[in-house]
Design goal:
Layout: H1 2-57, H2 77-88, H3 99-105, E1 110-115, E2 122-126, E3 150-151, E4 164-168, H4 187-192, E5 195-200, E6 203-216, H5 229-240, E7 248-249, E8 261-268, E9 271-282
Parallel strand pairs: 2-3, 4-8
Antiparallel strand pairs: 1-2, 1-5, 5-6, 6-7, 6-9, 8-9
Length: 288
């Protein structure tokens, strides 16, 4: 009996030990499964969050103001005149020009007006399509002969947007038309009168005079390729540094590839091969 009892107790202990081992194994398996499931869950959430963030990154920022290109300020004629006073200290001669009336009742080819202070130059500027020098020997009323008109070749744009615009006028003995340009041969007059002014139907332009001198009768518009930056800037450098006798210049004038130059051209008495020119560069402003 004693041996049988001991055998039963030993068998129970073994069974208990087996169940304990099985329980531990199952516990370990459960823990591993739990860790694995938690890992899968966190990975899934991480991927979902990444997708949500990616989607959010494509949404517009409703709090941000859309970027818009700043438009140039619109100026009235009076404000443009005041701008040059405030910015450069220049008193622009005030003009009351009715271009609609001029083109309707005086001459349809009038498109601008020019004033050169302390000369008689206070005239309309004309251009006739299809004939460059049409107004060389034609007057405002269409008659032929002197004094003609101040005019530009039809190679030039009428808005003075070209790098080089040339306005022509006769050297009249009575002092009219472009005779007054020869006053700039006097250095004191040159120093005292640094600007000329051009008016169009919707703008006023101020030009700083950087050179007044004799030049050849070469057509400045046709005989230079002003679209080439080097040609344009080298030419201006030569003009502003002209050391020939009688030339008056302002060597401190600055130019850029955006500069717009107007050349006023007239005859030289007793020399058909030469012209007297006064050259100005448009002053920068806040409007286009």
């Amino acid at each position: 009996m004693g041996n049988e009892t001991m055998g039963n107790e030993t068998g129970k202990k073994r069974k208990n030990k087996v169940w304990l081992i099985l329980a531990l194994v199952l516990l370990v398996i459960a823990v591993i499964c739990g860790i694995f499931c938690f890992y899968q869950y966190t990975q899934k959430k991480a991927k979902e969050k990444a997708l949500e963030e990616l989607a959010d990154s494509t949404k517009p920022d409703e709090s941000a103001q859309p970027e818009t290109e700043a438009e140039p300020k619109t100026y009235t004629y009076a404000e443009k005149v005041q701008y040059f006073k405030d910015t450069y200290g220049i008193d622009v001669p005030e003009k009351d020009i009715d271009f609609d009336d001029l083109t309707a009742n005086t001459n349809p080819d009038i498109y601008a007006w020019i004033v050169v202070p302390n000369t008689k130059v206070d005239y309309p500027v004309l251009q006739h399509a299809g004939e460059a020098d049409y107004y060389l020997m034609r007057n405002l009323d269409g008659s032929t002969g002197y004094p003609g008109c101040l005019y530009t070749d039809d190679y030039n744009a009428k808005d003075f947007s070209d790098r080089m615009t040339v306005i022509y006028g006769h050297n009249m003995k009575d002092g009219s038309m472009f005779k007054g340009l020869h006053k700039f041969e006097d250095s004191e007059f040159f120093d005292a009168n640094p600007y000329f002014f051009i008016y169009t139907p919707d703008d006023v332009k101020v030009y700083k005079i950087f050179a007044a001198h004799r030049f050849s009768n070469t057509n400045l518009v046709l005989n230079f390729d002003w679209t080439v930056d080097g040609i344009f800037l080298n030419f201006l450098d030569e003009m502003v540094n002209d050391n020939e006798m009688g030339a008056n210049t302002r060597p401190d004038t600055e130019f850029s590839t955006d500069s717009k130059v107007v050349t006023l051209s007239t005859c030289v008495a007793n020399d058909d091969t030469a012209r007297y020119i006064v050259q100005g560069v448009e002053l920068a402003h806040d409007w286009q």
